[in-house]
């Protein structure tokens, strides 16, 4: 690294552009210098002005390159093939009531239990890849072995992506610019193709379609959710997705889940909505900080789900008709 | 005693994160105390009191808060030792985003929030760049994509730091953060002679000394002018 010129570094590790930019280092015109010589020629005044510490920067650049190389390599070869939760205990130190819970990619597991029962804690255990070192005493295995430390400490390798209830876009960009920005932070190679794919999928989920030029902040609630879900499914590096209740308005929730599992995500979903909870093959019941039971969805429940889906369909049709300014007719709605 | 220096922009969620971290220390029977630094006003000390821990607050008032921190940290450490704390946490807001209160050899944590916008990592100086740990808050109200972009920018500015997502309301992640903070083997008796990780700007101009009048004639010392092209003004 030491002997490489900035031009060579940029050529070999294109992602270092981000490092120079974020550190406010203007390297234009200095590409033929090596990084240390570049820092050397900055005068004292400029260093103080920009609050730059030339001593540590070369080492930080090395570290950045190391991390990003691991991150990029990892995406290609190092897939999560299974997530295993091993039992700990609840708040009163009572052992949890299951042997082991193995979840594979494309599987959906629902999480039920009252507010404050320990759903956040369960999620945090997974996110942190707990090794009996959290208050619940649970352990997490990835691909049936002890998880690599990178899942804990590396900022770019987070195990869990989260879709929570009150998420908003705060950034002021168009859909297109927003997706490009996300793709760039992930060093994705075919930005344009990915953006188009995400937009198409999001539009399949949203009740009303939107274009790539729509500012993300002016999307409706349903459209925002649709875009977030499609983006998380296709562009997020995290192999596990946690969903905290998808609201029923303006989005096809079943398709949303199907999209996530079609991308080989492991889906954990906190919900009390029967239409969603019963779509999962298993559900975790949380009580008093611990996993009280892991229930399989029964055949009867699956049949019930079909009936409830028909009811839901009636409600959705009525909603669509109302939106279109029509008068409701029972014979059109109850088909 | 352990000392941990928390810092971060105003309203980024420092107090909430610290209080959640303190909860996990209390469960481990670790004796924690805190000192809150602020500029003109704070009633966060009441929140710490409610959590049942020894708290002291320091208002910098007419002085630059970072200078105030540097001139008081030694007494703060004396206080902590006298109270027989296992762990002393200081909290201060980086008001102009230029400086940082971290000391060499003492753990420094920067708290920043997703809502502050994705260009924030670039705007903040040594307070973010020289922290050992970065806690990112308010992730539950922005999209996954924004969280990922924000975190990747933080790590571009400070690749060595451990970056964690903390929810200051639910406490998700706070326990994990606490495990990275306390070191049983560290016994800090004094910070005398320790060094700031990054020097503060060498500012000393007539306005530092109380000048209120505007105009070239009243400006002395270390002043700096914007660059204007010919005829631009």
From TrEMBL, chain A:
UniProt keyword terms in alphabetical order: ATP-binding, Lipoprotein, Nucleotide-binding, Transport
PROSITE patterns named among the record's database cross-references: ABC_TRANSPORTER_1, ABC_TRANSPORTER_2
Gene3D superfamilies: P-loop containing nucleotide triphosphate hydrolases
Keyword Nucleotide-binding (UniProt): yes
Cited SUPFAM superfamilies: P-loop containing nucleoside triphosphate hydrolases (SSF52540)
ABC transporter domain sequence ranges: 80-313
Keyword Lipoprotein among record annotations: yes
Superkingdom field: Bacteria
Similarity section: Belongs to the ABC transporter superfamily.
Family matches, as PANTHER family: OSMOPROTECTANT IMPORT ATP-BINDING PROTEIN OSMV (PTHR43117:SF4)
Name under which the protein is recorded: ABC-type lipoprotein export system ATPase subunit
Organism: Pectinatus haikarae
TrEMBL record, chain B:
Lineage: superkingdom: Bacteria
Domain CobW/HypB/UreG nucleotide-binding: 4-163
Protein name according to UniProt: Ni2+-binding GTPase involved in maturation of urease and hydrogenase
